[in-house]
Amino acid sequence: MDRTEILDALKQAILNYDEDRARALVTRALDADIPPLDIVDGGLSRGMKDIGEKFQAMEVFLPELMLAAKVFLSSMELIEPAVLRAGEGKPRRGVAVIGTVKGDVHSIGKALYATLLKVAGFEVHNLGVNVHPGRFVEKAEETEAQIVGISALMTTTMPAMREVVESFAARGLRGRHAILIGGSPVTQAFCEKIQADGYGETAQDGVDLAIRFAEKGGRPC
Ligand code: B12
Q: How far is the CA of 150 from the centre of ligand 1 (A)?
């Protein structure tokens, strides 16, 4: 199998909810020296995107989403050590607090963001999912984080991102921590509307922004 065939088969394994096959293909991909992030983007994430579209078209339902997520997370267990190895020896960049907003339990994109921040040299405090706005503030202050990364995967939970920004403002803390937002329904326009400090379309974009903030500060949004 060449690279494209492996990645296509991996996408298909997600669509078939076939955990054993997905893990075997990930091992094969790593053995074939396919970069870990290409395995995620070119295989696993493509599968998740297709499952989301099938869900929207009512071709699959919640149990299938859960199965696909399980295959994704199980595959990530194999990929993560290879990703983290790439970050070994990197200088320490700063501290990041991340979480998924109140009302939202989607964790996969945020977990990927956490991993890539670690690779880039950040100390990461992952607050998990369904995080109350005040919790972001408390943890950011406690850890003196330069970066607060917020994830939302649903249009219905995006307004909670504004609440997080407002919680920092209400305590006079705007400008002290860069508030970065992301997740598939989030846009640059929304970032500007709620006056967050930056939007990352992908986890890697979010890491690049975090590095810029940690190094220079400023408001890229
Ligand atoms: C897997 C999944 C689930 C799983 C989640 C499991 C888990 N542990 O995360 C389960 C089954 C639990 C689930 C539940 C639900 N889901 Co759901 N789910 C998905 C699905 C298929 C994939 C999401 C995913 O993991 N993608 C892969 C990751 C890698 O991509 P990502 O999260 O977008 O992250 C990337 C970037 O966005 C970015 N990123 C993400 N966060 C951040 C943060 C920062 C700071 C930065 C910089 C970057 C960044 O980095 C990542 C990589 O580059 C999506 C479809 C989709 N298109 O998103 C639907 C989807 C998000 N779900 C949806 C819905 C409706 C639901 C439910 C309400 C269903 C129901 N009837 O109960 C519940 C909601 C429960 C709740 N209260 O949260 C809808 C949302 C529609 C909307 N209103 O916007 C979607 C879009 C499906 C659809 N097309 O209709 N879901």
A: 13
